Amino acid sequence: MEQENETQIYKIFLLGISENSTLQPFLFGLFLFMYLVTVLGSSVIILDTISDSHLHTPMYFFLSNLSLADISFTSTSIPKMLVNIQIHSKVITYEGCITQVYFFTLFGVLDSLLLTVMAYDHFVAICHPLHFLVIMNLRFCGLPVLVSWVTAALYSLLESLITSIYINNMKLKNYTQSAQFLLLGFSEDPELQPLLFGIFLSMYLATVLGNLLIVLATVSDYRLHTPMYFFLSNLSFMDTGFTSTTVPNMLVNIQTQSKVIRYKGCITQVYFFMLCLMLDSILLTVMSYDHYVAICHPLHYMVIMNPKLCVLLV
To answer: Where exactly are the transmembrane stretches of this chain (predicted)?
Structure first.
């Protein structure tokens, strides 16, 4: 019988982006700027929606919840990373890692579900305009938001449990220069693969279909050819790209039982993942500026937010 050395994991060492100490101030400033832009932009949307009675509509109710989810989504990892850069620490506790995974997944899934709810809101506004306020009443608006929170919480709990199992069964190996990476995946149990495939496929389809519905509704209805819906359709397109950078490849890997990704493929995936994430944050900031102009300069709104400026901001 072979004996194996099993070690219980209490702390996890984060490799970080760069070991170069001269780059640390630059990285700190870059991520701090990105985080502040995201938080301030989303906060402006929430404050505008609360303070202006004209914005107490289903559309802005969902948008304010989406902004809250985006603030929370970025706050699950960026502040911790900024602190680690400042104190030159690369350690995160096992409990801290699982907690971070839970909330990161919670607000990421919530973001996708809220975009789907907003797509339904647009569908009702376009197809049933005379009955819109009857269908999208206050009680009904609160229900899909509540369901989105509960669904996201349950899924993130499942994700955290899977991650916990993965970390406990993680094997550490010493790798030298590599042309390929071996993806460990969530579970080695083949019986769990169909379940994981179904969960991620359903989430991906819900996200893509919801966002595409928003884009198609904005393009097809001339009444939605406004700066607000122009920015929202671009945001939906970016969210589709954001999820498409990782999930389809993961689904293919589950089906083909492959865990290999090439070095170039990994770098490309990271590039587009960060690109879509940054665009998502910047577009939310642009949308907050659009709301500011609509509230503070209503008479000059169409002059200021002309098509040329809208395209330039995007």
So the answer is: 26-47, 98-120, 132-158, 195-219, 270-289
- Please compute, for residue 308, the number of CA atoms within 13 A of its CA located in the half-sphere on the CB side: 2
Where residue 173 falls (left for φ over 0; alpha for ψ -120 to 50; beta otherwise) is: beta
Average pLDDT over residues 16-38: 77
Q: Residue 68: which CATH number?
A: 1.20.1070.10
Provide the number of structural domains found in the chain. Answer: 1
DSSP secondary structure string, 196-233? HHHHHHHHHHHHHHHHHHHHHHHHH-GGG-SHHHHHHH
SS3 169: coil
Return the exposure string of 165-193: e unless at least 16 CB atoms fall within 10 Å of the residue's CB, then b.
eeeeeeeeeeeeeeeeeeeebbeeeeeeb
Residue owning tokens 């789907």: 116
Could you give the angle at the alpha carbon of 191 between the alpha carbons of 188 and 196, nearest 5°?
80
- CA–CA separation, 50 vs 121, rounded Å? 19
The boundaries of the domain holding residue 252 are: 11-313
> What CA–CA distance (Å, rounded) separates 65 from 59?
10
Structure token pair of residue 158:
């499942």
For 218-243, letters b (16+ CB in 10 Å) and e give beeeeebebbbbbbbbbbbbbbbbbb
Does residue 38 belong to any structural domain of this protein?
A: yes
pTM of the model: 0.56
* Encoded amino acid at 59, one letter: M
